[in-house]
Amino acid sequence: CGVGEKHAAPVTKVSCDCATRAGRTRGVFKMTDAVPALKAENVRMTFGETRALDDVSLAVEPGEMVALIGPSGSGKSTLLRVAAALQPADNTSGPVAVLGHTMQSRGRIASRVRKNRARLGFIFQQFNLVGRLSLFGNVMLGALGRLPVWRGALGMFPNSVKQAAMDALERVGMEEFAARRASNLSGGQQQRGAIARALVQGAEVLFADEPIASLDPVSARKVMELLRELNQSDGLTVVVTLHQVDYAQRYCDRTVALNKGRIVYDGPSNGLDREKLIEIYGPEFETAFYGGEE
Fold first, then answer.
1. Strand partners, 67
2. Which helix (H) or strand (E) holds 20?
């Protein structure tokens, strides 16, 4: 089920049968010959006296769409940030690799991490667009990693990047807002712009950290539908942290649940029954399940 190592707490793992896509069987989490999109081994992360990640091991195959769920403070966002090497783990932590490239190990960020991030997009809860720039200008920034520094500094983007930016905006349904300042866009529009920026980057793996937490239900559904469509049509690997369990069940084939820094469930999203959710969330269960609805 993608987690092959032992955990400090029991992990419920189940499989199901779905359609085949992107070189794997959707919903059947088996090992393949492909390099994992994400592989984390015995990851540990401590904040003071709190163990945010407690020997977490996780493998995500190319083409999967995986939800990370759990109560506040369970470690789901920390796991995503450690996997992207945005935050160093403990010096006793095992390695983390994306598409076969090491991001960090034993608390040390890989020296080639900038190059290793080239095919990894990261979507933040607060969008991280430059408010004074147009949406078009923000989306073109996705190409900075493969352009000479001077071009990026002067804003001299080649025509190929401009065309890629417009194509990406069209793909996410935002082409009519290309000239609008990012600060004048709604939250849902900014988040779709952030996804377009990741497309221009050429991301093969997309980490989305609570991308709908600040959005109204309609905008949240549009963003999740877009991520799902990119996953299904393009084979884009998506790992998304969510507070709303119903969205995980609706849009993600596989769900990984964390509690107190440990993985306590790894399997098909439709395997999350009421008993398992109460075990994961306790008194927060109903809020977590119905949080995505008006």
1. 240, 255
2. strand 20-21
pLDDT per residue over 244-255, tens digit each? 899 999 999 999
Does residue 186 contact residue 219 with C-beta atoms inside 8 Å? yes
In degrees, rounded to 5, the angle at the alpha carbon of residue 204 between the alpha carbons of residues 203 and 209 is 70
Identify the helix (H) or strand (E) that includes residue 55.
Answer: strand 50-60
Give φ, ψ of 35 to 5 degrees: -70, 130
Of 274, 225, 230, which Cα lies nearest the Cα of 251?
Answer: 225
pLDDT, tens only, 14-68 = 544 333 333 433 333 344 468 999 999 999 999 999 999 999 999 999 999 999 9
Backbone angles phi, psi at 178, to 5 degrees: -55, -40
Supply angle C-alpha 128, 133, 138, rounded to 5. 55
Closest CA relative to residue 143, chosen from 114, 115, 164: 164
Contact 171, 199 (CB under 8 A): yes
CA 162 to chain centroid, in Å, comes to 26
120, 203 contact by CB (below 8 A): yes
Mutual angle of helices 159-171 and 187-201, in 10-degree steps? 130
Q: CB count, 10 Å around CB of 47?
A: 10
pTM for this prediction: 0.85
